[in-house]
């Protein structure tokens, strides 16, 4: 562990300096005497598990709420933002992990929301569209700025958030999991833009659970745990194993557990599956197998599994479970056949955030868990308590899902589908936005499901995750199947060669 170097007077005059900042929410000490410095043109990584205090310090800097103690200076002057708008006026912006866009407005309208461009007293949509399109192209997103945000996938929405921030001409950007929904090419485009901006003197506080990114883009690292700064590194070239140990306070010896050996019994078969987003996809998954699906964003990964789960229509091909061809008229048909989908957007599609853990767990299985046609609160609590124990959820049956960390929310979403005893479970981006400790727990769940004999399909934009978990990997490129690789042949280079074909 290295010691924090004191920021010099010249550095303090130019950049952001945070000293002795603390914050308490009720009985929870979210931050305890945090010091942080960011120089012009510097990218500082802020690492820690969910609940470590990263978002709290980001929100204080961005003016969402004030600190209880401590002080900040920005460009050599006292800095006490009263609101996010005040922070933006000072040149400081925060890009949240969860998109905060209005789905019924266009991309350009979202980018310039609250600061619409005008000409001769009227909204200048032509200029708004032009400038929004310019930022989208810089991020490698080739879509019309007039398109409604609600029609975009999660990855594209995240890029719109980034494009919005880039139009602010900010001097310090706080990026909270900016690549969580991005694939390799999109991440590279973002990093190129960050490099260009840092050369102009723009600073970044970079929050990410993808530790392999840190060495690529960051200059220094600050590690937090339980609201305290526990380590600072003057370089980003730090072994991942060391960072993980500092973040969780213990050694995580093996991130990807052994899922066991699959049987020869085929559970899921997909033959010649096609729709407008992909064509002629064929594969099978055996009992006890973890089958990975890889490809860059836009390859059709999510579209394929949504079609298998009956969410999106199929124009050609067929899906079979245990040898029986399914008639997929909607999600209910797939569910009744034993196919469960854990969607990529757990907050928008996976969980009902304002309902309790118990209500979420029993929601897809009301007929199964009810006794003699009656579902009592006691029965809900009973079922939820068992699920909480099995999935090691940190929460109580009556606790609203909204109050849980991302990792625990994901466990609840998985638990609610396991209550139906599925034959096939499909997990789309199972660890998006989840910290290292919680990610390791989700990996254990996936391995346990495979060892229990379930057929498991995993879709992820994190290639290391797909390779670390899977027995075999299907690679998609632009909606076309490029090949299926066994684990021993599925290297990063082999997969990317197919994914970019």
Explain the layout of strands and helices:
Blueprint: H1 9-14, E1 16-25, E2 28-38, E3 43-47, H2 54-61, E4 69-74, E5 77-78, H3 84-89, E6 92-95, H4 107-111, E7 118-119, E8 122-123, H5 125-138, H6 154-166, E9 172-176, H7 184-199, E10 203-207, H8 211-217, E11 220-225, E12 228-233, H9 240-248, E13 266-275, E14 278-286, E15 290-294, H10 301-308, E16 316-321, E17 324-325, H11 331-336, E18 339-342, H12 346-350, H13 357-362, H14 366-369, H15 377-391, H16 406-418, E19 424-428, H17 436-451, E20 455-459, H18 463-469, E21 472-477, E22 480-486, H19 492-499
Parallel strand pairs: 3-10, 3-11, 6-9, 9-10, 15-20, 15-21, 18-19, 19-20
Antiparallel strand pairs: 1-2, 1-4, 4-5, 7-8, 11-12, 13-14, 13-16, 16-17, 21-22
Structure in words:
The protein is of the alpha/beta class and 501 residues long. The chain folds into 3 domains: 174 residues, Rossmann fold, CATH 3.40.50.300; 65 residues, no CATH class; 234 residues, P-loop containing nucleotide triphosphate hydrolases (Rossmann fold). The N terminus is likely disordered.
């Amino acid at each position: 562990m290295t010691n924090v170097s004191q920021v010099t007077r010249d550095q303090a005059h130019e950049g952001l300096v945070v000293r002795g900042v603390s914050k308490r929410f009720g009985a929870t000490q979210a931050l305890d005497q945090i010091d942080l410095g960011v120089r012009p043109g510097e990218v500082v990584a802020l690492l820690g598990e969910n609940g470590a205090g990263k978002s709290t310090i980001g929100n204080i800097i961005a003016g969402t709420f004030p600190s209880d103690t401590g002080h900040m200076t920005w460009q050599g002057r006292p800095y006490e933002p009263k609101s996010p708008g005040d922070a933006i006026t000072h040149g400081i912006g925060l890009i949240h992990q969860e998109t905060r866009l209005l789905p019924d407005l266009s991309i350009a309208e979202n980018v310039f929301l609250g600061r619409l461009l005008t000409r001769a007293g009227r909204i200048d949509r032509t200029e708004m569209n032009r400038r929004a399109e310019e930022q989208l192209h810089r991020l490698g997103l080739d879509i019309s700025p007039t398109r409604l945000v609600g029609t975009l996938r999660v990855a594209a929405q995240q890029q719109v958030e980034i494009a919005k921030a880039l139009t602010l001409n900010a001097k310090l950007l706080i990026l909270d999991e900016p690549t969580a929904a991005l694939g390799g090419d999109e991440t590279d485009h973002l990093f190129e833009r960050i490099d260009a901006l840092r050369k102009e003197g723009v600073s970044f506080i970079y929050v990410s659970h993808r530790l392999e990114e840190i060495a690529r883009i960051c200059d220094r690292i600050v590690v937090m745990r339980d609201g305290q700064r526990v380590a600072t590194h003057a370089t980003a070239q730090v072994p991942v194993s060391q960072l993980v140990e500092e973040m969780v306070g213990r050694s995580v010896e093996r991130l990807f557990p052994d899922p066991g050996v699959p049987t020869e019994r085929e559970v899921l078969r997909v033959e010649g599956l096609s729709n407008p987003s992909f064509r002629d996809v064929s594969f099978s998954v055996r009992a006890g197998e973890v089958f990975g699906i890889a490809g860059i964003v836009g390859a059709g990964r999510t579209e394929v599994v949504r079609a298998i789960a009956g969410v999106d229509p199929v124009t050609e091909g067929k899906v079979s479970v245990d040898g029986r061809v399914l008639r997929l008229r909607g999600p209910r048909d797939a569910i009744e056949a034993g196919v469960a989908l854990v969607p990529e957007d757990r907050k928008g599609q996976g969980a009902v955030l304002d309902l309790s853990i118990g209500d979420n767990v029993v929601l897809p299985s009301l007929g199964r868990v009810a006794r003699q046609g009656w579902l009592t609160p006691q029965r809900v609590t009973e079922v939820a308590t068992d699920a909480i124990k099995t999935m090691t959820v940190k929460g109580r049956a009556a606790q609203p899902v909204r109050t849980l960390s991302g990792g625990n929310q994901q466990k609840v979403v998985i638990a609610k589908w396991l209550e139906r005893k599925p034959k096939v479970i499909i997990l789309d981006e199972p660890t998006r936005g989840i910290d290292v400790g919680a990610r390791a727990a989700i990996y254990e769940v996936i391995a346990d499901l495979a060892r229990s004999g379930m057929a498991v399909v995993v879709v992820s934009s994190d290639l290391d995750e797909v390779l670390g978990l899977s027995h075999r990997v299907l690679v998609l490129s632009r909606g076309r199947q490029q090949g299926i690789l066994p684990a021993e042949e599925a290297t990063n280079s082999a997969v990317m060669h197919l994914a970019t074909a």
